[in-house]
Amino acid sequence: MNSKLTYYLTSVALGALIGACGDSSGESTATDVTTTTDASTSQASTTAGPTTTDDSSNPPTTSDGSGTNPTTDSTTDTTSDPVCGDGVVEGDEACDDAGESAACNDDCTLAACGDGVVNASAGEACDDGNDDNTDACLDSCVDASCGDGYVWTRAEACDDGDDIDDNECSNSCALPSCGDGIVQMGEDCDDANDDDTDDCLSSCLSASCGDGFVQAGVEDCDDGSETDLCDADCTAVVCGDGVVNQTAGEVCDDGGESMTCDDDCTPAECGDMVVNQAAGEDCDDGNTDNTDACVDGCAAASCGDGFVQNGVEECDDGNNVDNDLCANDCALNLEMCQNGADLLSTAPSGQAVVCDDPNNQTCEQDIVTLCPIGWHLCSQLEHHNRNDGW
Quick one: which of 265, 260, 263, 264 has its CA closest to 280? Predict the structure, then answer.
């Protein structure tokens, strides 16, 4: 092929290409090619049409305003904006799985914890785009919860990440406090109420006698210490309860009468006017008169005790000799009144002597003077003639 023909074909092809890339109105310029028949020289004269404007550096804006580059369909020679979610990665899309997937967000960005997009398919419960573990969303894209080991400042007082309920942080992420229903270190109990009449006080101490609170069904009273109305064992004061309450005036309390304690909670003592049979008392009139019904030693008066009981006994010599001056029934051993001699009298020596008074005169220190004048009582004792200084 000669050089002229080759040049001609090349010029025609170039003109066609320029026509295909015409201006924005779609118009193309004609190319005039002038050839000479001169074999040594050739001249091609090309006249170009109007120049088109290249605006490829400013891609059209998509319908959602994202500025994604448009795409051109080569088969239809048409341009359209990329659509996120159509399953085709186009324009500025990093991915497009036709919806949310574990690897691709529903905005066609790659799924990553911390990107601010919650991707449930990737296992994210939240995604606040920060690494702050004191808010509602952890940096692992998990909702904050009690027990995760991070203190959620708006909802938790503590979070030790364990399941031990009685240490320095409870399983509800609260600091230990009396009344929270959890027995913590330093607490005897914790029933989560402020009732001080049950077995656990509002101070989280076990109820006990002396705490000042009456435990219902257990204590009669509780004044915090012994008072005249409340014993130290938190029972009401009663003499005979076996609890000595000095504040109430008790000196002793043996739970009843004993050898050392009267039943009025005073010490047993003859003469205190309290008859204490456990201490061996028959009576206790509180005096030292031995002519009444109660003699020394708080014993009941009786014949033979050596004390003449007024109105009851004629004599009481305290012995069991029946034929002396005083019989064993505490009556005088005397015969009827007689007129004459042989009157028995008692000398200062204690010896019985015969008063021989034939003149019917009264002897000195007669035993009795109950007979009429000139009459005397005679004893059945043996008469002894004895000068005893009378």
Answer: 260
Contacts of 55 (CB under 8 A, 6+ apart): none
CA distance 238 to 69: 103
Alpha-carbon torsion 170, 171, 174, 180, what sign?
negative
Domain boundaries, the chain: 334-379
Q: Which of helix, strand or coil describes residue 377?
A: strand
- Mean pLDDT per block of 10 residues along the chain (390 residues) reads 42 43 38 36 36 41 46 64 89 89 93 93 94 95 96 94 87 91 91 96 97 96 95 95 95 95 95 95 95 95 95 92 85 57 46 46 44 46 39
Distance of CA 18 to the CA centre of its chain: 96
Angle at 12 between CA 36 and CA 27, to 5 degrees: 125
Instruction: Give the angle subtended at the CA of 376 by the CAs of 371 and 380, to the nearest 5°.
Output: 125
DSSP class of residue 111 equals -
Predicted structure pTM score: 0.44
> Torsion angle of alpha carbons 232, 237, 241, 244, nearest 10°?
50
| Residue 217, Cβ density class (10 Å: 0-12 exposed, 13-18 middle, ≥19 buried) | exposed
DSSP letters for 288-349:
--TTSSEETTTEEP-TTSS---TTT-S---SS--TTSSB-TTS-B-EEEEESSS-EEEE-TT
Beta pairing, strands 294-295 & 299-300: antiparallel
Q: Contact, 225 vs 246, CB < 8 A?
A: no
Torsion region of 257: left, alpha or beta (phi above 0 gives left; psi -120 to 50 gives alpha): beta
Q: What angle do CA 163, 168, 173 make, to 5 degrees?
A: 55
Q: Give pairs for 364-371: CB < 8 Å, separation 24+.
A: 364/390, 365/390, 367/325, 367/332, 367/334, 368/332, 368/334, 370/337, 371/337
Q: What tokens does 13 get?
A: 């092809």
Number of H helices and E strands in the chain, helices first, is 1, 8
Nearest C-alpha neighbor of 276 from the set 295, 299, 296, 292: 299
Backbone angles phi, psi at 236, to 5 degrees: -65, 145
Q: Whole-angstrom Cα distance, residue 32 to residue 34? A: 6
Side-chain half-sphere exposure of 293, counting CA atoms within 13 A: 4
